[in-house]
Amino acid sequence: MPAAPVIVLTGGIASGKSTVAKLLAAAGGRVISADSLAREVLLPGQAAWKEVVSAWGQGVLTSTGEIDRVKLGRLVFTDPAARRRLEKITHPRIFDLMHQQMVEAQKSAAFVVLEIPLYFETECSVPADEVWVVYVGPLTQLKRLQERSGLTHEEASARVAAQLPLEKKCAWADRVIDNSKSLAITEKTVKTALQDLLASKKACKDEERAE
After folding, report:
1. Residue 166 CB: number of other CB atoms within 10 A?
2. Comparing C-alpha atoms, which of 96, 95, 132 is closest to residue 111?
3. What is the pLDDT along the chain (211 residues), one digit of tens a residue?
């Protein structure tokens, strides 16, 4: 049985990747989130947790010994060297777990979605049939980030600036999902893109059988 197609879902911070991921999950996809895996590798006692505490001290921990993501974020998003250090600790472990889960999911899912916010920024590559970028305008992005995370305008701007511009990501994407309008329009865009991908994969399989 051929492996299920794989979509890398990426975009900018607060662009609506989770919204699109939920739509794809509702359509029958198995979503594997890099953010969820990041939380997993940073659980107390894990190797990455120990390295983070060694690098930044007990001050990045909550009262229960977990990594305080807000505190850690404030340290690394204003310091490129610190951010690279954190990524070196976490990214290899995240992508190893992701690859394991992807291979397993391909055995039974109709398609697999790898939700990777920093796909273009990282050196870790994953095999995918298509890369989808979720897009919103810069003002909307900042507004959503401030409302969602309780950040100041300066903090939100720093986090956006730490990533590649969304316009550049869109230029590299196989498909762009415009999430700047209504949810209904986003849902329609996702449905059409998914139908196109699955139809294309089916056509390729049919050609292979005919040869």
Report:
1. 22
2. 132
3. 578 999 999 999 999 999 999 999 999 999 999 999 999 999 999 999 999 999 999 999 999 999 999 899 989 988 989 999 999 999 999 999 999 999 999 999 999 999 999 999 886 678 899 999 999 999 999 999 999 988 899 989 988 988 899 999 999 999 999 999 999 999 999 999 999 999 998 877 666 665 6
Residue indicated by tokens 């930044």: 56
Tokens 């049919």: give the residue: 206
Q: What are the sequence ranges of the domains in the chain? A: 6-210
Identify the H or E element spanning 26: helix 17-26
Q: At the topology level of CATH, where does 6-210 sit?
A: Rossmann fold (3.40.50)
In this structure, what token pair is assigned to residue 154? 């300066």
Instruction: Give 151's contacts (C-beta < 8 A, 6+ positions apart).
Output: 145, 159
Whole-angstrom Cα Rg for the chain: 18
